Amino acid sequence: MPWWVIVLIKSAILLFVVITSFAYAMLVERKILGWMQMRPGPNRVGPWGLLQPAADAAKLLLKEDLTPETADPLLYKLAPFISLVTAFAVYAIIPFGASPSGAPWAIGNVNAGILLILAITSIGIYGICLGGWASGSKYPLLGSVRSTAQMISYELAMGFSLIGVLILAGTTSLDGIVHAQTRLWFFIPQFIGFVIYITTAVAETNRAPFDLVEAETELVAGFHTEYSGLRFGLFFIAEYVNMLTVSCLAALLFFGGWNAPFGWTAIPGVAWFVIKVAFFMFFYMWLRATLPRLRYDRLMSFGWKVLIPLATLNLVFTAIVVAYKG
Amino acid sequence: MSVYAKPLSADIVSRTDNTMVLSMGPQHPSTHGVLQIVLEIDSENVVKADPEIGYLHTGIEKTAEGLFWTQAQTAIERMDYLAPESNSLCYALAVERLLGITDRIPPRAQVVRVLIAELTRIASHCVWLGTHGIDLGAISVFFYCFDLRENILDFQEAAGGARMHPNYVRIGGLNGDLPDGSLPRLDALIAKFPGRMRELRGLLQANPIFQDRTIDVGYLSPDDAIQYGVTGPSLRGSGVAYDVRRAYPYCGYETYDFDVPTRVEGDAYARFLVRLDEMEQSMRIVEQARRRLDTPGPVMIDDTKVALPPKETIALSMEALIHHFKVISEGFRVPPGDVYQSVEGPRGELGYYIVSNGDNRPYRVRTRPPSLYNLQALKCIAPGNLIADLVVMIGSLDPVFGEVDR
After folding, report:
1. Would you state the torsion angle of the CA atoms of residues A100, A106, A107, A108, taken in this order, to the nearest 10 degrees?
2. Which domain holds residue A272?
């Protein structure tokens, strides 16, 4: 078979897996929120509410797709796709496991994997900025201004927090980073980096308590106030897929990817990877159920005055230790 | 000339500076009903804020003029729909003063009135706390609050027959005694309350994000508060210990042992703490009222001109039948005069100024809704803050639009 057929088949499988996990992540989130709030969560469609994602998708498809008169039609219609495409594109280089020969299970094994992921996710924010701005409406505009500010304050700290891992692993390839964690998972030597990454990842995905871009009680629905139907759905998918992405990265970079803990290799590596990702997903849902939202100027000063200096210190310290040990 | 008054926001909308006009509400998710605030904003900083009210005007005061004295109470209950029994209690007290029967209300009825009023206060504060939490993004608090509130509403339903507007407090007493089984239900509620309060305090009070969002936000000085006529927890959060239950006791409040929680900080966090403390003080009163309920007694005034005669006497006594027919078909007449009566509602001093011209219907029912006065303070505290803070301020003033717009 020519290489591109294999890539196409791999992509199709991966898209299916990611979309299914998105749909059920959403259902599980609603269930978990329900249990944390003393209510059953969705349980009407299908047994245990299992068909709820399908019902939601059908509903969104049937809704009218509105464009405000004041909107910039091209950008308004394009913005959800920017968010969605970049959210999915990241999965081209995320490895989910390794075959016994050591080859990673990924569509492409890129040397500069982590840099590419950061680059792609940074483009994703354009969907939100442009979508809010192009709506030609006031609340979305405020949402998109917030998203720009938030992106600048957080991507820097996030990048710095990851460099520590790169120094320890000596490579930017995700596959290589996982291999470097065979003995010791990086969240132990890079604990500060791990905490900073987890915090900034919440901001990166615009989830509570950093969901200022949507901030329902302040900005109605923030950047997607004017969106309806499937275009709203695309933003929604992008948010959950991004959540999956940052959880995958947390598992790969700090929790040893598909390495089994304590030598429990009876469970295959892929399963370990899924368990770790699920753990981080649960963590994000838990945060959402518990914490109030930060104020937007406080979030900025937290990013600039706490996270970035801390990440820089962590980076310098890691570099000194690695250089000293040779 | 237009017959309509110029809207408050007209000067904001017609301004020409380099700022943006943002209409917050009346459909905004955190304006607690149908408040519209027309904002002049510079990026996210509020330069000027004008609350526009009136979207929920239902003409309750006017409606009450067309109803019998007793019937009017059903309409009045719907003003502050989160604390209906405070409204009807205040109205009943006012009419009783006009009738001159205040001293003849049976003691058990007074105790149950206090009990219901305090439970209503807790239920109302539960809604406030839940929605305040949601405004700040803490979504789960809402459900824990509503669980507690649901228990109180169940109790109200058992007593008065309806969850929201039971119309249980009547002129002359109560609409029947508490039913069998309500005291164990009340005991269960009293037992459950402290644990639930600990959880709620744990989720918000010590949370650094919550403190960051509320401390020093929406500072209201005691002078401003008094000048704007702010009452209730919002006033006590500014350090003025004015509580109608203490200042002008009614229903025997002077015989109950409770504190009036006061804070001097005057910010949203102080108002938050005052309300939480108030819930606990209300529970103290409920416990004391519960102990007084063990002795049975009548719950309605023994005056068949005002109250319906007991059902079992109607078939046996000619006079009872006549009284029953008269009270049902044309109500009772209230001597001419006017009276102002106020109670401490969950939101502050709730008052009724009632005029009677001797008819079987009120001539005028004028309300002093605490929310209306408290909301005016928003104009004074909003400028210079962020939109996100504005949401906190509205929440901390706890307006209910049923009574603001009436």
Report:
1. -90
2. 66-325
